[in-house]
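Chains adopt folds. We examine one example:
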Amino acid sequence: MTEAPVAQGVGPVRQKPPLRPMLLSIYNFQMAPLARAASSRGMTAVLPGEPLIAFQDVHIGFEEREVLRGISFEVWRAESKILLGESGSGKTLIMKMAAGLLRPDSGRIWVMGQEIEKMPESDLLDFRRHVGFVFQEGALFDSLTVSENVAFRLNEENTDEREIEARVREVLRFVEMEQAIDKFPGELSGGMRRRVAIARALVDRPPLVFYDSPTAGLDPVTSQTIITLILQGRDLQQVTSMLATHRIQDAFGLARFRFDRKTNRVTPAAPDGHPPATAPTNVLVLREGQIYFQGAALELLGTSDDYLKAFLESAE
């Protein structure tokens, strides 16, 4: 476990030769795979032994206030990286920079083999087709139906109409929202809108998904449903995720449980004392623009650090 008010550096990431793009399915094992003819312009696969995401000494600020001061960390394939910290600590900024939605003031960012901060906007548009992003509060288009919201990216890519319909129904079935396919967002509860937002992020089958406060404002039962969906993607298809949240229980839920392929249910990650059967769930705690803690979620629970103990006690 690392408890220090300074960021940890990552080693240099070498340039990689182009490889064929990664076309991974995020759906559960009961769903039939559908072929995807994704654009490969500007995309490379990550070589074995190298992280899917790497931040190196990243700084960003607004109106003379530096929000992040030298952030460095890595995210590995199939890992769940949980970003924790007080409001305004920069959790969402980190995800937006990793998705190419914001550029850092300085530092370097690699995602899926690409040095994001150096990419022109035309290449970033293609890059974003290979990642999913669930925005806080869902951010659905109010004037579009559930089906039209989920299909939005596929329509932009001029996907065949028959494939669009098949994919939309498939992913809505995955989040248990197929019955709402013709409804508008205003007709849905908060939890239902959040599930539709997840469906929209997953419809293009990205290998990497960013979740910005996916359970914020939801009741405990609905929050558990959202975490279960994230567990399914991680444990059944090894999807890598980064999740910003104020809810400590989200991090511990992902660390303590797994989605079992045989029973199609959520089970403890280490039943009967056996080693955990899930990919790692690790936590970054941000404080005053730097990484204060970086380590396994369950190590955070047992911390002796006074600030971290106070943070855990005050968090949701």
About this structure: The CA atoms of residues 172 and 299 lie 36 Å apart. Confidence is low (pLDDT under 50) at residues 1-44. The first strand starts at residue 2 and ends at 3. The chain has ten helices and 13 strands.
